[in-house]
Specification:
It contains 6 helices and no strands. It is mainly alpha-helical and about 120 residues long. About 5% of the residues have low confidence.
C-alpha cells in the first residue's frame, strides 16, 4: 500500500520548470511519526533551547525534562493567532506584495496589475 501512495505521488510530480504563478500544494504525510529539529545552524536558538532545558531540569525531584516534553507542551499552547503569525512569517517579500495587491483589488473592486498597483502605492506618475 505504501508503494502505491509513493508511486501516485511520483507520477503526479512533473519535472522541469514550473509555470509562472505555480504554487505547489502541501500534502501531509499522515504516516510520518518522527520529526527532527536541526539547530546546528541556528546558534542563538540552540543556546536558548539549552538554557531552557538547564532551567527546567534545575530541580530536586522528578525525572528529566527533554526537548520533546517542552515541544509538546508548547504545541498545546498554540492558538489560531499564533498559526496566523506563522503563516505570515512564511511569506516571501514578493508574496506579501502580491497579497497586498489582491486585498487592494478586492477592497476597491479594481483589477490593477502589479505595476499599476506599485505606481499607485508609491505615488509615482
Amino acid at each position: 500500500m505504501e508503494n502505491n501512495m509513493e508511486n501516485e505521488v511520483k507520477k503526479n510530480k512533473k519535472r522541469g520548470r514550473k509555470p509562472i504563478g505555480y504554487k505547489e500544494e502541501y500534502v501531509l504525510n499522515k504516516e510520518q511519526s518522527k520529526f527532527f529539529v536541526d539547530l546546528s545552524k541556528e546558534d542563538e536558538l540552540l543556546k536558548k533551547v539549552q538554557e531552557l532545558l538547564i532551567e527546567a531540569n534545575n530541580k530536586n525531584y522528578g525525572g528529566e525534562i527533554t526537548f520533546k516534553d517542552m515541544a509538546l507542551f508548547a504545541i498545546d499552547k498554540l492558538c489560531k493567532k499564533d498559526i496566523e503569525k506563522l503563516k505570515d512569517n512564511s511569506l516571501s517579500e514578493m508574496e506579501k506584495v502580491e497579497r497586498s495587491l489582491e486585498e487592494y483589488n478586492q477592497k476597491n473592486g479594481t483589477k490593477l496589475n502589479l505595476g499599476e498597483y506599485l505606481i499607485k502605492k508609491l505615488n509615482l506618475s
